[in-house]
Write a structure and sequence with these properties.
Helix content: 40-55%
Strand order of the largest sheet: 4-3-5-12-6
Largest sheet: 5 strands, mixed
Distance between the termini: 51 Å
Number of strands: 12
């Protein structure tokens, strides 16, 4: 397979026509058309559907162009490194749920990064976005959180997308409130105690293959009449400090976080649901030294805080 032909195909896909691509590439249209046909013959697939309106990717072509873009980027990266004499940069990227034990692990991990050049990416988001981040290769590692009763949906999605997955933590939600909240003074909590108060929740639950309305119905039951939907972990802590009518459900917090914000965490006898945090990456991805370092800190933090 000719790398130059691959570059031509990417440009045709971007331009949507042979005419426009030939102008950008500064190559005659007949030569460009012949190169694309040779590439299709070499691969044994049809990359483009041709019509009077332009060139459109077939399903096979869309998949090929995705691979081609990654290959061409890697070639550019290698050329930039060795032609410029640059030092190879360490790279680490992970997309995770909003969780204190995970951020603690990341903090510990950050202390062990060597003095060599490095690009480190840490993204807190929901399960849907984490899956997209890992599948698109924007992030090499991801941690997906979901209730165990959704196992079959997520495992089916992982298998379908050729992802490796491993459960790194299981927990039941605790209820977190400021120490000045009346809830903090109760010896035991039940759902009925929570009804008059305001729950702080992340408003973006996700389960593959299930309608969003059905997932929200299960994750946000009617036992609580007032909710504030928040999408940032630090904003939830700020609200707990400022409004003693608020509370939140979360995986267990460590003592330093509780003390920093003046919070209390309590078990609730009515809580039965177990949540999983599952580490994912592509099956063809080989863990780097930095990945291994982070996973070690993650497991250590899980044992310490959960």
């Amino acid at each position: 397979m000719n790398i130059l032909h691959m570059k031509y195909a990417v440009e045709v896909a971007k331009a949507g026509s042979i005419n426009k691509a030939s102008e950008t590439l500064l190559i005659a249209q007949p030569n460009l058309s012949r190169s694309i046909k040779e590439l299709e013959t070499d691969l044994g697939i049809t990359i483009f559907d041709r019509s009077a309106k332009g060139m459109f990717l077939t399903p096979e072509g869309r998949e090929f162009i995705g691979y081609a873009q990654k290959i061409l980027k890697q070639i550019d990266d290698v050329e930039n490194i060795y032609k410029s004499g640059s030092v190879i940069r360490q790279k680490f990227s992970i997309s995770v749920p909003r969780a204190t034990y995970i951020s603690e692990a990341f903090g510990a991990f950050s202390k062990n990064i060597s003095s060599s050049p490095a690009d480190i990416y840490y993204k807190e988001t929901n399960s849907s976005r984490t899956l997209k981040n890992v599948i698109s290769s924007d992030y090499k590692l991801g941690i997906v959180r979901y209730a165990e009763n959704y196992d079959k949906y997520f495992e089916s999605m992982f298998d379908e997308k050729s992802l490796t997955y491993e459960t790194v933590a299981e927990f039941k939600h605790l209820f977190i409130m400021h120490k000045s909240s009346p809830l903090a003074k109760k010896e035991k909590l039940c759902f009925e105690d929570l009804r008059p108060y305001i729950e702080l929740v992340y408003g973006d639950p996700f389960v593959p293959y299930l309608p969003s309305a059905e997932v929200k119905k299960q994750e946000f039951p009617k036992d609580i009449e007032r909710r504030i939907f928040v999408f940032e972990r630090s904003s939830r802590f700020d609200l707990l400090c400022q409004n003693n009518e608020t509370f939140m459900r979360a995986c267990p917090l460590n003592e330093s976080t509780l003390n920093r914000y003046g919070l209390v965490q309590k078990e609730c006898a009515d809580v039965k649901k177990v949540y999983r945090d599952v580490l994912i990456h592509k099956k063809d991805y080989k863990l780097s030294m930095l990945d291994e370092m982070f996973i070690k800190e993650l497991k250590s933090a899980k044992e310490k805080y959960l």
